[in-house]
Amino acid sequence: MATSEVQTVNTGADKAKLAGSVALLLAGFVAFYLLSGKGALAQWGVLLVAVAAAVGMFVVSESGRQLVAFFRDAWRETKKVVWPARKETIQMTAYVFVFVVVMALFLWLTDKTVEWAFYDLILGWRK
C-alpha cells in the first residue's frame, strides 16, 4: 500500500504575506469606522481598497495559490456533473413530496394510536 506524504513548507516570506493581508484587512475595518465623519464614499472606498489589497496579498502567498488551485479544481469537477433533465427533476421532487405526506400521515396515525392506547386503555384518563 503506497502512502503519499504531504509536506507543507511555510517560508518566512509566506508567513509575512499572510500577516500582511490580515493587517491590511484589520486596517481597512479600523479606517472604515474612523472615517465615519468623512462620508460613506470615503468609508467604503478605503474599506474596498484595503480588502482588495488584502485579497491580492493573500493570493500571491502559497496558501492563496493552493486555495485558488482548489477552487479551480472544484469548478472543473462541477463541470463534469451530469445534471438531471427537467422532467426527471420534477418527477423526483413529486416523489419526495408524496413520501413526506405519506410519512406525515403514518407518524400522525402512529402518534394517535399510541396516545389512545396509553391514555384510554392503560391509564383510563379519558372517559
From TrEMBL:
Matching Pfam families: SecE
Gene3D superfamilies documented for this protein: Preprotein translocase secy subunit
Keywords: Cell membrane, Membrane, Protein transport, Translocation, Transmembrane, Transmembrane helix, Transport
Subcellular locations according to the entry: Membrane
Residues passing through the membrane, by range: 18-35, 41-60, 89-109
Domain of life assignment: Bacteria
Main subcellular location: membrane
Role played: Essential subunit of the Sec protein translocation channel SecYEG. Clamps together the 2 halves of SecY. May contact the channel plug during translocation.
Family according to the record: Belongs to the SecE/SEC61-gamma family.
Assembly, per entry: Component of the Sec protein translocase complex. Heterotrimer consisting of SecY, SecE and SecG subunits. The heterotrimers can form oligomers, although 1 heterotrimer is thought to be able to translocate proteins. Interacts with the ribosome. Interacts with SecDF, and other proteins may be involved. Interacts with SecA.
Protein name: Protein translocase subunit SecE
